[in-house]
Design goal:
alpha/beta; Rossmann fold; 2 domains; six-stranded mixed β-sheet; 6 helices; 26% strand
Length: 229
């Protein structure tokens, strides 16, 4: 006979976002570029940062990538601080606005560089770089200096360089800005695949269609979060 209703299973505690920014304050001169901004970027998700020019999107991404230490607040990766002497060994791929490529290197050499720094075997370095360059349609320009490439080609090389290390987190500033629809879809597919493998992807965008492909995000206005979704 039944001994009564079975008690429900206890709920598992919520899993904190892989990448978090809490209370970030950044000032440039007398201007407060970020005024106490929070950002959550879960694993296995694309998180958008939107807003008008000058709203603080690029600054927030720099804090989230550990490239800029805020005056107040903190960024953490899997609970560990991203700034200071105790920051964890990071696997963060970054796509900078303006690409940030090394002009005296070829497209392939730019993509291979992070793997070389990480001490990967030369054959693996070449193979992984070529696979991404091929998927992004710039394999034919692999041996050309990046300064000889079009803006769209440089954009795709920058994306390849960020993804070649198979990062735990990707922070991408306008990664589709120079791309037509077909290449934008390719880039978003690659980012979605990486998220599917467990990464947290954060991208700043002015493109409403790109933002709509993300799983959530924040909209900044004058250095504050005006809306979340």
């Amino acid at each position: 006979m039944s001994g009564g209703p079975v008690p429900p299973e206890p709920l598992s505690p919520p899993v904190p976002p892989l990448l978090q920014v809490r209370g970030a304050v950044v000032r440039v001169g007398d201007r407060e570029v970020l005024a106490g901004v929070d950002l959550d970027a879960p694993a296995r998700a694309l998180t958008a940062v939107t807003g008008p020019s000058g709203a603080g999107k690029s600054t927030l991404l720099a804090v989230a990538a550990g490239l800029l230490q805020p005056r107040a607040g903190a960024a953490t990766l899997d609970g560990e601080p991203l700034h200071g002497d105790d920051r964890p060994a990071r696997r963060i791929g970054v796509v900078l606005q303006g690409y940030g490529l090394v002009p005296v290197l070829t497209a392939a050499e730019n993509v291979e560089l992070p793997l070389q720094v990480a001490g990967q075997p030369p054959a693996e370095v070449r193979d992984r770089a070529r696979v991404l360059l091929d998927r992004l349609g710039v394999a034919g320009a692999a041996d050309r200096l990046v300064e000889e490439l079009s803006g769209g080609q440089q954009q795709r090389v920058a994306v390849a360089r960020a993804l070649v290390v198979r990062p735990l987190v990707v922070v991408a500033d306008e990664p589709t800005a120079e791309l037509d629809r077909s290449w934008r879809e390719v880039v978003m597919k690659l980012l979605r695949e990486l998220a599917g493998d467990g990464a947290a992807v954060v991208l700043a965008t002015h493109d409403e269609e790109v933002a709509g492909l993300c799983d959530g995000g924040v909209h900044l206005t004058d250095g504050v979060v005006a809306r979340r979704w």
